[in-house]
Design a protein that fits this description.
About 40% of the residues lie in helices and about 15% in strands. The chain has about 375 residues and is an alpha/beta fold. It folds into two domains: about 210 residues, Glycogen Phosphorylase B (Rossmann fold, 3-Layer(aba) Sandwich), CATH 3.40.50; about 150 residues, 3-Layer(aba) Sandwich (Rossmann fold), CATH 3.40.50. The strands form two sheets. It has a seven-stranded parallel beta sheet, sandwiched between helices. A six-stranded parallel beta sheet has the order 10-9-8-11-12-13, sandwiched between helices.
């Protein structure tokens, strides 16, 4: 365990932040949003000091409500409120007396600049880069087919804000080589970027003993319904496999208009709880992730841990976890490339071999406690 005094500013529920917040070392103090308006519904419980700021709560709650609304313009409003909420949380944490006195502040791009300025120079800023840089994100949104000026694009004002945070960072935590390369293009020196892939639950990986159920195989997608995630590409893949399999989609809706293009062999099941996602993984024959950009893509390692073979874009950082026979990594973002791999994976005489490969790959993925140990060790080395 690191002896460095660390404080964590965690503006939203996120897996690597939850793992860090679970550290019981008293040197790590975590600040999390209060959730009085949405308790038990919108976020998993996180250990930490609640930042009671009603304005922040209102922004986040309204953003969630707008995200789920079906009226025109609701998603654009939701995105704007989300960015304002992150900035408000940053301001609230920066104003706290108990934010001082640490060697390191771990914070998130888009929600770090005010707190970092408040505690500098005594406290160093470590950015946890869970999302891609604004440039990488926007390029992926456009490549995924979004119209000009779509709300999924990061606004120039927010991008400039994030660039300032990267310039201030003593260290940046990146979950993949691809994400680190994009951060380096912003001018962050390579020796200030630590590449630490994310973890999996501490439970042992499980072996799928059953073959796909009789009848049509099910291919599962878990993630945002968004242009960046390749939903239009996924729909074209599904149309070309209408003779072979059905597709189920789970995840938050970022671009609601995409659901109007849902093919006949696709079903959207809603955002889904953790238990619901696990149940769908156990019922599926494969997971597909045709994303145009993901710093990591945690759902891939979660699927492998449950012994579910995957077909994943090489734009997702977690494709490095797809070892021999665990599935396929796709370099070409074309329907043909994915259709070919899914047809090969779903063959009855091949599926069992892929399921075994997924189980073996899942066993080799580091656990979250191991990830936390690596983060703390890297921070300690960076200060020495």
């Amino acid at each position: 365990m690191s002896g460095v005094a660390i404080k964590l500013s965690l503006p939203y529920s996120e897996a690597s932040g939850r793992a860090l917040a679970d550290v019981t070392d008293s040197a790590l103090a975590t600040f999390v949003p209060a959730a009085r308006l949405r308790r038990g519904r919108y976020r998993l419980p996180i250990a930490g000091t609640e930042v009671n700021d009603f304005r922040h709560e209102a922004l986040v709650t309204l953003s969630g409500l707008a995200r789920r609304a079906s009226v025109v313009g609701a998603q654009r409003l939701a995105t704007g409120l989300m960015y304002r909420g992150h900035e408000r949380f940053d301001s609230s944490v920066a104003a706290r007396a108990d934010i001082f006195g640490a060697s390191v502040l771990i914070a998130y791009p888009g929600a770090a600049i005010r707190t970092a300025v408040a505690v500098a120079p005594a406290t160093r800023l470590v950015l946890n880069a869970v999302n891609g840089t604004p440039e990488l994100h926007n390029a992926a949104v456009r490549e995924g087919g979004a119209p000009p000026n779509h709300h999924e694009l990061v606004p120039a004002r927010v991008a400039a804000h994030v660039h300032r945070e990267y310039a201030m960072a003593h260290l940046v935590l990146s979950p993949s080589q691809r994400a680190a390369a994009a951060i380096e293009r912003l001018g962050v020196p390579a020796d200030r970027i630590g590449i630490l892939p994310y973890g999996r639950p501490s439970a042992q990986a499980r072996m799928r003993l059953d073959s796909p159920k009789a009848g049509r195989p099910i291919v599962l997608y878990v993630g945002q319904i968004s242009y960046r995630k390749g939903i239009l590409l996924l729909f074209e893949i599904a149309r070309r496999l209408v003779h072979l399999c059905d597709f189920r989609l789970m995840g938050p809706v970022v671009a609601r208009e995409l659901l109007s293009f849902l093919p006949t062999n696709c079903a959207y099941l809603g955002e889904g709880s953790l238990l619901a996602v696990e149940a769908q993984m156990d019922a599926a024959s494969a997971l597909v992730l045709p994303t145009y950009e993901d710093t990591y893509g945690l759902v891939v390692s979660e699927a492998l841990t449950r012994g579910l073979p995957v077909v994943v874009s090489n734009r997702a950082g977690s494709h490095e976890d797809v070892l021999d026979r665990a599935g396929y990594v796709v370099a070409e973002q074309t329907p043909e490339a994915y259709v070919t791999r899914l047809e090969a994976l779903l063959k009855p005489d091949a599926w069992g071999d892929h399921a075994k490969g997924a189980f073996l790959a899942g066993q080799k993925i580091r656990t979250w406690p191991h990830y936390v140990d690596q983060v703390l060790a890297l921070i300690e080395r960076s200060l020495s």
